[in-house]
Design a protein that fits this description.
This protein is an alpha/beta fold and 205 residues long. It has a single domain (2-199), classed as Aldolase class I (TIM Barrel, Alpha-Beta Barrel), CATH 3.20.20. Helix content is 38%, strand content 18%. The protein starts with a strand and ends in an 8-residue tail after the last helix.
């Protein structure tokens, strides 16, 4: 189970860097800096601060949408919205190993993202969640399963995913789960992360 934390400083309980630091200490694998309202300079400063926090970890830091800021800051990659520039175009201006993720909302988009050179996709919303109402009704586990089979790249399940249903996402083929509130609002994030990495075995229940 890989854990993908997406930031939202407006929902964060306190200073965002403190929240990010806690998530990194809990062992998240990826952090997407998703602060769309920040101007380029402020986003660059935030990204550099997060990279400093992550320096002693193996976590990858991605910047939402702004490949220019990601490259200027020395981030590990960028995360693109659905319908954005093809990942292959980003490859032309980025160093070897630069990670390109893409948001997808149906299996066809997952297939296209993979063909265009994406390293990973975030698929959702899988379950109903107020924060994703703008993206339409939940896709459900059946569509998640189809998305995971659509391409040979990691698919992260997003939207209403938590301790109570993470194992279902894994069973559907997800490489991990992505979320905002799951990581920002947890009182014991280290405990939540540990529980997510060792989900219960349905055969033993």
């Amino acid at each position: 189970m890989r854990l993908y934390y997406i930031t939202d400083r407006k929902q964060a309980p306190g200073d965002l860097l403190a929240v990010v630091g806690r998530a990194l200490r809990a062992g998240v694998d990826l952090v997407q800096i998703r602060e769309k309202d920040l101007d380029a300079r402020a986003l660059l400063d935030l990204t550099r601060a997060v990279l400093h926090l992550a320096a002693a970890t193996s976590a990858k830091i991605l910047v939402n949408t702004r490949a220019d800021v990601a490259l200027a800051a020395g981030a590990h990659g960028v995360h693109l919205p659905a319908g954005s520039v093809a990942p292959a175009e980003i490859r032309k201006i980025s160093p070897t190993g630069f990670v390109v993720g893409v948001s997808c909302h149906d299996p066809g988009e997952v297939r296209r993202a993979a063909l265009e050179g994406a390293d990973l996709v975030v698929f959702g919303p899988v379950f109903e969640t107020p924060s994703k109402l703008a993206y339409g009704p939940p896709q459900g586990l059946k569509k998640l399963r189809q998305a995971c089979r659509a391409a040979n790249i990691p698919v992260f399940a997003l939207g209403g995913v938590g301790l109570h249903n993470a194992v279902e996402c894994l069973a559907a083929g997800a490489a991990g789960i992505a979320g905002i509130s799951l990581f920002q609002q947890a009182g014991d994030l280290a405990g939540v992360a540990a529980a997510l990495r060792t989900p219960p075995d349905p055969a033993r229940e």
